[in-house]
Design goal:
- With about 100 residues, the protein is an all-beta fold.
- The chain has one domain (about 1-90).
- The chain has no helices and 8 strands.
- The protein has an 8-stranded antiparallel sheet with strand order 1-2-3-4-5-6-7-8, with no helix packed on it.
- Strand 1 (about 1-10) and strand 2 form a beta hairpin.
- The protein is globular and about 40 Å long.
């Protein structure tokens, strides 16, 4: 699974990143983030359930934890430090049916 993010203000681009979720060399599921084209930071999967998946990397500065979950048709995401502080949430909706 691949993703891309773009955050800006007006016509000014503040940050962009590409991401992907895939199996690593050991066969474990992981999330990789490459903000502004930087080398990939790996976040191994630490929890998975029917409607939720969590990736974490305590050695990373911010975020250290990335959580995705479903609420109806919406996909929710939260980034935070390992203890849940400095949390920031995102909500994604389908674009058409």
């Amino acid at each position: 699974m691949i993703g891309a993010a773009r955050i800006g203000r007006g016509d000014r681009l503040i940050i962009w990143e590409s991401t992907h979720i895939a199996h690593d060399d050991a066969g474990q599921l992981a999330f990789w983030a490459m903000p502004r084209g930087a080398p990939a930071s790996k976040f191994p999967m630490v929890k998975a359930g029917e409607r939720e998946i969590v990736f974490a990397n305590a050695a990373h500065d911010y975020p250290q934890k990335i959580r995705y979950w479903r609420e109806g048709a919406a996909l929710k995401a939260e980034i935070s430090l390992m203890d849940g502080s400095k949390a920031y949430q995102f909500s994604y909706q389908p674009m058409g049916q």
